[in-house]
Write a structure and sequence with these properties.
The complex is a heterodimer.
Chain A: E1 2-7, H1 16-19, H2 27-42, E2 48-51, H3 58-64, E3 75-78, H4 87-99, E4 104-109, H5 111-121, E5 126-130, H6 143-154, H7 160-163, E6 164-166, E7 169-174, E8 177-182, E9 185-189, E10 205-210, H8 221-227, E11 237-242, E12 251-258, E13 261-273, E14 278-280, E15 286-290, E16 293-298, E17 304-309, E18 314-316, H9 318-327
Chain B: H1 5-30, H2 45-52, E1 60-62, H3 68-74, H4 78-85, H5 119-133, E2 139-144, H6 151-162, E3 167-173, E4 176-177, E5 180-181, H7 182-185, E6 202-206, H8 210-225, E7 231-236, H9 254-261, H10 265-275, H11 281-304
Parallel strand pairs in B: 1-2, 2-3, 3-7, 6-7
Antiparallel strand pairs in B: 4-5
The chains are: A alpha+beta, B alpha/beta.
Chain lengths: ~350, ~325
C-alpha cells in the first residue's frame, strides 16, 4: 500500500511567464501542497510514500514542516537515484516507483511533466496535480483532497473500476521508430530549434494532432476544442491542418493557446482520428512540440508520423473516487476521536 | 524567428571568440604574463551571445567581474581588451583598470565591475536615462546567483518595477557564489522566483542553450521597448573554470564539472547546425582557425603596446 510522489521543481517557470501571462508557481508553494498531500495520504492508512529526489529538495522540506517523519504515521522514503536535473529524472523515478510496487503516483507539474512520468509509470495510475502552465492532463485540486483520493486508490478502499480512467496518447514516430509520446497534443512547427520550448507563435504552427480538446482547455487543445469537443474517454482524436499566416484561410479558430493568449488560428481543414491511425508530418525540416513543449527536431529528409493510441496512462478521477468512497461509507466512523 | 545561415554562424563565431579569448588568457595567466586577477567566462558563452544578439546601438549592458564574454558579445575590440588585461596603454582603460574595469560607453558597454551586484543599479540608471531621453533604448544587467542576495539586486528590481524601466535583469546562475554553492546561500533554487516579489515576469531558461537564451532575451527586450517594464531572466549555466584563475575548486567535484562540460553551449549549437545541414565540419574548422588567428593578433597587439608611463600615474584616475 504505497504511493509515489513526483514533484517537478522546474514546472511553472518557463518563458510563458513572459510571452503569456502564466502563473508563477514557486517551489515553496509546492512544498505546502506536498505537505497537504502527505497528510491526506496519512489519514487513510497508506503505509509508505516514495519521493523522487530533486535539486530543490522537496522531500526534506515537506517533512521539515511536518515535524519530520515523526509527524506522520506512514513511512516516507527517497528513491536512491542520481539527480540529473532534467526530465529523465521524472521518467526514471516513475519506473523505480512502479518497480517498487506503488499503487498510485501523484505528480506535481503540467502536461509536460506528466508526459515524462507516463513514459516510466507503466500500468500504475497517475494522480496529476496541476502546478504547470498548460494543464489539460493534470487537474486543479486541493492537495489534501488529492492525497485522500490517491490514498483511497492505493489502499483499495475504492475499486479501480470506480476510480480510474484510461486516457489516450499520441506516439511520435521518426523514420518509423517511436521516439516520444504526447498525452494531449503534438504540434508541428515551422521552426529550427527547440529553444525555450514553449509554443506561442501561431504563425509557425503547421499541423495539430490531439487526443482531446475542449474550448475550456488552455493550450493548443483549445484549437481542437474550438472545432469539436473530444472528451478524455472518446475513442478518437483530431488532426488539424493550419494555414500559412497571411493566407486566406477558409476559417479561423479563436483559441486560448496560452494563459492570456487568445489567438486566431487559420485552419485549412480538420478531421477525426481513429485508434492507431497515423498522421504524416507534411513538411520537414520542422520541430514537433509535445504537450506544449518543443521537443523533437526533425531534419530535412526525415520522416515523421503521429499515431493516436487508446493505451494512454491510467488516471485517478478524483471526484468519482471520493464520491465512491462516500457511497461505501469509508468516511463514516462510529468510534469517537481519541 | 528563422535565422539566416550568416546569423547563425555569426553567433557561433562569437561564442567561439569568447572561448578562445578566455582560454588564451588562462594560458597566459598561468605563464605569469598577466598581472592582477582574471575571472573567466568559459562555459557561459551562450548567455552573453544569446542576450546581446538582441541589442541595438542605443542599448546598454552592465557586466560583472566575469565580464570578458559580455564585452566581446557586445562587440568590444579583443585587441583593446587583451591590451587592458595586460595593463598596457592601448587597452580600454589605458592599462589602469585591468580585467574588471573594461568598459566602452560608446559601445553601450558600461563596464565589468569588481563589486558583486554593482551593475544592477547602473543598468537601472541607464534604463532610466533611456526612458527619460525617449530613445527606445534598453539596458541589460548581467549578474550572478550570489549577487541576487545583495541589496543592490532588490533595490534595482524594486525601482525598475515601480518606474517600469526598460531593463532586462539577466542572472547567470552558475550555481556558485565564489565557492559557496547556491543551496548554501539561498533558500530557493530558481532566482527567477524572486521576480514575483516585484510584480514583474521571471523566467528560468537553459543558459547553455543559445536559442533558449536568445528567445527569452528577445521577448524581454521587446517588452522593455514597448514600455512594459523590466523582466528577470535566470539562465542556468556553469563556469568550467574556477571562480578566478588559480582557484583549486575544492568546493565542487570533477564529476559535476564533467557533466556540465557535456552540455557545452558551443558544442551543442555546432552539433545542431550540422544536423540541420546549415554548415559543414570544414566550414566550422575554418571559422575556428579565423578565431584563433584573431586572438593571436590580439595578444600580439597587447604585447606590442607599451606600458603606461610613470607620468600617467594619476591621469584618467580622478575627474577635474
Amino acid at each position: 500500500m504505497s504511493v509515489g510522489i513526483i514533484a517537478n521543481p522546474a514546472s511553472g517557470k518557463d518563458i510563458r511567464r513572459l510571452v503569456a501571462h502564466a502563473t508563477v508557481f514557486d517551489n515553496n508553494e509546492k512544498v505546502n501542497l506536498l505537505r497537504r498531500i502527505l497528510l491526506g495520504l496519512d489519514s487513510l492508512g497508506v503505509e509508505r510514500v516514495w519521493f523522487m529526489p530533486d535539486y530543490f529538495g522537496f522531500y526534506q522540506r515537506a517533512l521539515d514542516g511536518l515535524a519530520g517523519q515523526g509527524g506522520l504515521n506512514m513511512e516516507t522514503r527517497l528513491l536512491d537515484m542520481p539527480i540529473n536535473a532534467n526530465q529523465e529524472d521524472s521518467r526514471r523515478a516513475a519506473k523505480l516507483m512502479a518497480d517498487a510496487g506503488v499503487k498510485c503516483i501523484i505528480t506535481l507539474g503540467g502536461d509536460g511533466t506528466n508526459r515524462v512520468v507516463a513514459k516510466g509509470a507503466g500500468v500504475v495510475p497517475l494522480l496529476p496535480v496541476s502546478t504547470g502552465t498548460n494543464n489539460v492532463f493534470p487537474v486543479m485540486v486541493e492537495g489534501t483532497v488529492a492525497g485522500l483520493a490517491a490514498g483511497l486508490v492505493a489502499t483499495g478502499k475504492v475499486a479501480p473500476e470506480e476510480s480510474l480512467l484510461r486516457t489516450k496518447k499520441l506516439i511520435i514516430y521518426l523514420n518509423d521508430q517511436p521516439v516520444d509520446i504526447a498525452l494531449i497534443d503534438a504540434v508541428v512547427l515551422a521552426d529550427q530549434f527547440t529553444g525555450s520550448r514553449a509554443v506561442w507563435d501561431v504563425g509557425k504552427i503547421k499541423q495539430i494532432v490531439a487526443t482531446r480538446g475542449a474550448a475550456s482547455n488552455i493550450g493548443i487543445a483549445s484549437v481542437v476544442g474550438g472545432l469539436r469537443y473530444i472528451s478524455i474517454a472518446d475513442p478518437k482524436g483530431m488532426q488539424v491542418a493550419v494555414d500559412e499566416p497571411g493566407e486566406d484561410a477558409p476559417f479561423y479558430v479563436r483559441a486560448a493557446i496560452g494563459p492570456g493568449l487568445v489567438k486566431r488560428v487559420p485552419v485549412t481543414g480538420y478531421g477525426m482520428l481513429g485508434p492507431e491511425q497515423r498522421v504524416a508530418v507534411r513538411e520537414t525540416p520542422c520541430v514537433i512540440a509535445v504537450d506544449g513543449e518543443r521537443e523533437i527536431q526533425v531534419n530535412a529528409g526525415e520522416r515523421a508520423e503521429i499515431e493516436l493510441s487508446l493505451k494512454g496512462p491510467l488516471v485517478v478521477d478524483v471526484e468519482r473516487t471520493l464520491a465512491a468512497a462516500a457511497a461505501r461509507g469509508v468516511f463514516r466512523e462510529t468510534r469517537p476521536p481519541a | 524567428m528563422a535565422f539566416s545561415k550568416e546569423e547563425m554562424l555569426g553567433m557561433y563565431r562569437k561564442m567561439l571568440l569568447i572561448r578562445e579569448f578566455e582560454e588564451t588568457v588562462a594560458n597566459l595567466f598561468s605563464q605569469g604574463q598577466i598581472p592582477g586577477f582574471v575571472h573567466l567566462y568559459v562555459g557561459e558563452e551562450a548567455v552573453a551571445v544569446g542576450v546581446c544578439s538582441n541589442l541595438g546601438d542605443k542599448d546598454y549592458i552592465a557586466s560583472t567581474h566575469r565580464g570578458h564574454g559580455h564585452g566581446i558579445a557586445r562587440g568590444a575590440s579583443v585587441d583593446k581588451m587583451m591590451a587592458e588585461i595586460f595593463g598596457k596603454i592601448n587597452g580600454y582603460c589605458r592599462g589602469k583598470g585591468g580585467s574588471m574595469h573594461i568598459a566602452d560607453v560608446e559601445l553601450g558597454f558600461l563596464g565589468a565591475n569588481g563589486i558583486v551586484g554593482a551593475g544592477l543599479p547602473l543598468a537601472a540608471g541607464a534604463a532610466f536615462a533611456n526612458k527619460y531621453l525617449k530613445n527606445n533604448g534598453v539596458a541589460v544587467c548581467f549578474f550572478g546567483d550570489g549577487a541576487s542576495n545583495r541589496a543592490t539586486f532588490h533595490e534595482a528590481l524594486n525601482l525598475a518595477s515601480i518606474w517600469k524601466l526598460p531593463v532586462v535583469f539577466v542572472c547567470e546562475n552558475n550555481m556558485y557564489g565564489i565557492s559557496m554553492s547556491q543551496e548554501r546561500h539561498q533558500n530557493i533554487t530558481d532566482v527567477a522566483d524572486r521576480a514575483v516579489a516585484y510584480g514583474i515576469p521571471g523566467v528560468s531558461v537553459d543558459g547553455n542553450d543559445l536559442m533558449a537564451v536568445y528567445e527569452a532575451a528577445g521577448e524581454a527586450v521587446k517588452r522593455a521597448r514597448a514600455g512594459e517594464g523590466p523582466t528577470l531572466i535566470e539562465c542556468k549555466t556553469y563556469r568550467h573554470r574556477g571562480h578566478f584563475e588559480g582557484d583549486a575548486c575544492v568546493y565542487r567535484s570533477e564529476d559535476e564539472l564533467n557533466e556540465w562540460k557535456k552540455k557545452c553551449p558551443i558544442q551543442r549549437f555546432s552539433t545542431r547546425l550540422l544536423e540541420m545541414n546549415m554548415t559543414t565540419r570544414e566550414e566550422l574548422e575554418s571559422i575556428a582557425a579565423g578565431v584563433k588567428e584573431q586572438i593571436k593578433t590580439a595578444v600580439e597587439y597587447a604585447n606590442r603596446s607599451p606600458l603606461p608611463d610613470e607620468t600617467e600615474l594619476t591621469t584618467d584616475v580622478y575627474c577635474d
